[in-house]
Amino acid sequence: MKNVLVVYYTQSGQLLEIAKNVVSTLEISSEISVTYHQIKPVKKYDFPWEKETFFDVFPESFLQIPCKLEEPQPEVLSKKYDLVILAYQIWYLTPSIPINSFLKSETAKQLLKDTPVVTVIGCRNMWIQAQEKMKVLLQEVQAKLVGNIVLVDRHINHISVITIEKWMFSGKKESYLGVFPKPGVSQKDIDEATKFGKPILKDLLQGDYKNLQYNLLKIGAVKVKPFLVLVDKRANVLFGKWANLIIKKGKPGEKKRLKWIGYFNKYLKFAIWCIAPIVFIVFLLTYLPFLGQIKKDQKYYASVDQKL
Question: Which pTM was predicted?
């Protein structure tokens, strides 16, 4: 009997639906036992978000400052796992605070050490640098990343900015004004996530994952968009400056800090609506001269390799 652990944190429920579909093939196998562990912060992050709260978690999120978590159920800790499916959200280009907190805990060291891990991401569109941070976190607990599956909102950037924001602050995954598409990962992509279970099951039973990511890529597990690689890298640099500035202004909710959070919010909107289109034009103009590096980056970020 092979033991599989699904570790997840979700607010809307979308990520759990994705994770369940990914492991559905495993769950119907008589040779597999699947256990779920929901990460639960002691101080919950409510969904839908309050706008002020959403922006106020930015510094701690980006700087990967952990929060306190509830202890896992004894059943979760009582087994040695052959594979862990780690499903996570991305907050501010970084694994969410609850996921980051779990990976920095003694529980993670106990559960993940020397254990193969498949990451499952559900996000708007930028996940590249978050996954690089995830690789470091997994390395620190001596886990072995063997696969990565990414499901994103497929709509164009500025459309998804509008629809995701409405979803986050209303809690309703519906068409805004009856004109915009539904936010988040499409139901079609969520339903089709079951296809990823077959190669995972095969390698799990064989105990050999060296070709897993290659086989996952063949069925569409990851699509790397070169422009978003560029934006993600540059945004991380700027977010770092903002986060380190704001964290010095006080604790979450304090008046002085919230004033700077307001400045960051305005900057973020300006960057999305004014700077990003200019960056895209520059990217198009320099695409051919940098084509070799772009292809190299695409291959690397689609893999489970880690830069030294």
Answer: 0.95
